[in-house]
Amino acid sequence: MRAASLLVAAALLAAAVPARAQDDAPAQPLVGSGLTFTGVPTVQELYAQQKACEARKPPRKAKGAISESTYKRMERIIDAIGKGEYAESEKKLTELNENARGDYEKAIILQTLGFVYASQSKEAQAIKTFEAALATNALPQQVHEQMMLNIAQLYIADNKYDRGMEHLNVYLQESCNPNPDAHILLASAYAEKKRFREALKQVDLALVKAKTPKEQWLQLKLALHYELKEFPRCAEVLVHLVGMNPVKEEYFKQLQGILFEIKKDPESLAVLGLADRRGYINEEAEYRNLSNLYMYMGIPFKAGVVLQRGLDAKQVEPTEKNLEMLANAWMSARENDKAEAVLKKAAAISEKGELYRQLGYIYSEKMQWKDAIDALEKALRKGNVKEPGDLQLLIAQAAIELKQWKRAEEAVRAAMGYEKTSKIATEWAAHVQAEYDYATRDKNPVEPADPLETQTN
Predict the structure, then answer these.
(1) Model's pTM, two decimal places?
(2) Contact between residue 37 and residue 200 where contact means Cβ atoms under 8 Å apart
(3) N or C, which terminus of the chain has less Cβ within 10 Å?
């Protein structure tokens, strides 16, 4: 009985990977999760495989016992290990091993010594010692399997992935009910070797087996699907991660990005909108992304609200690009007053005339003719505007409304100089003359001037 309790203590010390209880009942993991597992057995199939394995391969039994004197010394050594006294414990265990009586006693001593080596980052010595303990073939099944895992883990921790994978695969053949953590360890090794498909199978096996899968496992599954460009599977995993840890804002943002990638735009917007309501939108790129999504989905007012909030919070810089983006949102939403205020700021810092052109159109719609002429002339002076002939015609229209006949005539003549507007500008010349004649008929002209001379090509 005392020997058995010592075995438990040594096993707990030596366990680099926590042992899992061997349940008889099959696990029922991730019910309703929506996760896709490809190429792995179901829970029921795994349970049947386990029972068949146990029937043809009885578990190992402990072979021997520990002497009373060794037991007492081991108790003191294990207590010292618990206090971190590794150097002294190593020395005493080495001496004890030299005088071990029987394979079982030797295996327990070596198992504990291997843990001491591992605790001091002496991986090579730890591996050699654990392998010597296994070679006695005297340990019971669960402890024997745990030692195999210890060795594989040490190889992988030492970046010796091929050796680690080799030992893990031997363990998987030995065990009738492999620990899910072993599948994850093997998956991580495969991933390091860029064997992503094999890694994914191991992660899926762990998830099918585990009653309570760890968040890190799902993160690994997500990374593997991403490497394999299986974006719909990425979305499935992220939905589960959001449910598992809803306070982690990164999951919301990753899910939104994946949904957008697979062209599920309404769902993408819904997820990013939820992230926004939770207060997770706090960087310029995120404000712009959400605003762009609203624009893409035909909701420009919301696009403007989001971007304006970012500017007000000073989380979005008032650059020309951002202000133009905001102005476009307001104009698309027919919020001309808001668009006007933003365009004034953007146009003033822009090196191009395009923003003044947009501002001129807004003033024209609002019939603020003087402001329209001022903005449109600034647009032409700065240059780099679309359809300058059209701008000249719009200036002519504003000038007519203000009864500035010379200014109207000059704008029409300028429009004649552009191929696209030359023909219509000729017609406008007649229109300007007609408006002038009507305004000055039977009364003095508002703006004294020589009679207009129309120009034809």
Answers:
(1) 0.67
(2) no
(3) N
Q: Of 224, 229, 178, 219, which is closest to residue 201 (Cα–Cα)?
A: 224
pLDDT band at 227 (very low <50, low <70, confident <90, very high): very high
Nearest Cα to 66, choosing from 3, 150, 130, 147? 3
- Going by C-alpha positions, the residue among 383, 363, 384 that lies closest to residue 374 is 363
Q: Yes or no: say if 259 and 268 are a contact pair by the CB < 8 Å rule.
A: yes
Tens of pLDDT, residues 360-390: 999 998 899 999 999 999 999 988 888 889 9
Residues 6+ apart with CB under 8 A from 45: none
* Burial 285-316, CB ≥16 within 10 A → b, else e: ebbbbbbbbbbeeebbebbbbbbbbbbeeeeb
Cα distances (angstroms) measured from residue 418 to each of 115, 385, 390, 394: 87, 13, 9, 14
What is the per-residue pLDDT for 443? 58
Query: By mean pLDDT, which of 12-26, 87-101, 293-307, 422-436 is the weakest?
Result: 12-26
Structure token digits, residue 40? 């792995």
Q: Which residue type is seen at 55?
A: A
Distances in whole angstroms, Cα of residue 273 to Cα of each of 255, 285, 289, 316:
12, 15, 11, 18
Taking Cα atoms as reference points, which of 452, 388, 379, 385 lies closest to residue 416? 388
| Phi, psi (deg, nearest 5) at residue 404 | -95, 85
Instruction: Give Cβ neighbours of residue 1 (< 8 Å, ≥ 6 apart).
Output: none
Q: Length of the chain, please?
A: 457
Nearest to 393, CA basis, from 362, 424, 368 = 424
- Span 45-90, pLDDT tens digits: 888 988 998 888 888 888 888 888 888 888 899 999 989 999 999 9
The identity of residue 80, as a single letter, is: A
The string of DSSP codes covering 91-111 is: HHHHHHHHT--SHHHHHHHHH
Range with the poorest average pLDDT among 227-236, 319-328, 377-386: 377-386
Residue 444: what pLDDT? 52
Single out the residue of 232, 251, 284 nearest to residue 34, CA to CA: 232
**Rounded CA gap, 88 and 110, in Å?**
15
Contact 326, 343 (CB under 8 A): no
